[in-house]
Design brief:
This protein is an alpha/beta fold. The protein has 18 helices and 13 strands. α1 packs parallel to α5 and α3 crosses α11. The mean pLDDT is 93.
Length: 388
């Protein structure tokens, strides 16, 4: 019920009428304080890593950006509401949700970079050994507009299973939107047969012995983005130098996280000095810095089908490839999404990639920082690889 309310609230926000009063409030704040300090909003999941590392490492201050303490939100709806109204001006958001925000309500937001890659998995009850065994059962997703929903439906289709929203029969799987914090308990008490979500909830289920990873999302869609970094269009237009400094700090934070994974796990954990998330350090270590033996076991058991891709459980690379946004729009058109989503029909993938994303700042930050090698960037284009 909590997740359903969250979805309905976002559906209202991502309409022209619902967004208008929030955008008007944001406009008033801009007039009153055009040089507002950086205010970060985040959910306590690994998707927020670059935003929190940049704050924890003092990288914003290094680049002359005044920043307030990051604000933790408990739902996507509350995070988005705060962003659209101007209470916070830097957030991470599920990549499909950014498309919903921009084209469902014409919200003046821009994707300025990727937040992270992969970092999600399909976790199932211990007695389920293959996707076919999910027939007639329920799988939880964090949101309809999520890469998790896109990937799991691709997996189900490739295994001959059809998605329904209630009463699954033979050959069907029910998808149910559920708050990530509720998923492990729901799996433990057999209310669901599995879930697909961002870390560290998959690692938590493993650690508690109530679930096992069946597939990693990055082993289906190679190097896919999960969350993206959003900023307000008025900030980009009115103070681009400030935006550049913010993005440069975030790129440096991603480089730090990629090269100092154990330190990053401690920083994000409840054992860290900032206590950014309520998660145990040992669980975050499983996500950010799994041992080589542990990672090899996933390949040996067949959980990882494409070891030649060289995927990490979660990885960091900030450049928003246009091909990803284009393919994401195409995939969303093939994905079952509850609610009114007719706006998707009119979207042109190439136009969305050009309009939604502003990659000028992240390009400059990567080049000036000499980060190409760290992020394994060999240019600004690629071909998307999706193989179940």
């Amino acid at each position: 019920m909590r997740s359903r309310r969250d979805f309905l609230k976002l559906a209202a926000l991502f309409s022209a009428a619902g967004a208008l009063p929030l955008l008007q409030a944001c406009g008033r704040q801009v007039v009153q304080n055009p040089a507002a300090p950086l205010r970060i909003g985040y959910l306590p999941i690994t998707d927020a890593t670059p935003l929190l590392v940049a704050h924890g490492q003092g990288l914003f201050a290094k680049h002359g950006v005044e920043v307030a303490k990051p604000v933790l939100f408990r739902s996507w709806a509350s995070l988005v509401e705060a962003f659209l109204s101007g209470q916070v001006n830097l957030i991470h958001l599920l990549s499909p949700m950014s498309i919903w925000a921009r084209y469902g309500s014409a919200s003046p937001i821009k994707v300025v970079m990727w937040n992270h890659m992969a970092g999600s998995a399909l976790t199932v009850a211990p007695d389920i050994d293959n996707v076919s065994a999910l027939a007639g059962k329920t799988v939880a997703i964090p949101f309809w507009y999520s890469i998790h929903n896109v990937v799991v439906q691709k997996i189900l289709r490739e295994n001959g299973l059809r998605v329904v929203e209630k009463n699954p029969q033979a050959g069907e799987v029910r998808l149910s939107v559920m708050a990530p914090s509720d998923m492990v308990a729901a799996l433990a008490n057999r209310a669901i047969a599995g879930f697909i979500v961002a870390e560290p909830f998959n690692a938590v289920a493993e650690s508690k012995g109530v679930g096992k990873v069946l597939r990693f999302s990055g082993d289906v869609w190679r190097d896919h983005a999960c969350c993206v970094t959003l900023m307000q269009e008025h900030d980009i237009n009115q103070r681009p130098e400030w935006v550049q400094s913010v993005v440069t700090a975030l790129v440096e934070a991603q480089a730090f996280a990629a090269q100092h994974r154990a330190d990053t796990a401690l920083m994000l954990s409840k054992q860290g000095s900032h206590k950014y998330t309520p998660h145990e350090e040992k669980v975050l270590q499983k996500v950010l810095a799994p041992t080589p033996d542990a990672w090899a076991r996933y390949s040996a058991s067949g959980v990882i089908r494409h070891p030649e891709w060289g995927q990490s459980r979660i990885d960091f690379q900030p450049y928003p490839y246009p091909s990803y946004t284009e393919k994401l729009v195409e995939m969303l058109k093939q994905t079952h999404i509850a609610g009114v989503n007719r706006f998707l029909d009119a979207l042109d993938p190439v136009q969305v990639a050009q309009d939604l994303v502003d990659d000028r700042f992240v390009k400059q930050a990567v080049i000036q920082g000499g980060h190409q090698a760290v992020f394994k960037l060999n240019g600004w284009t690629r071909t998307e690889t999706i193989v179940v």
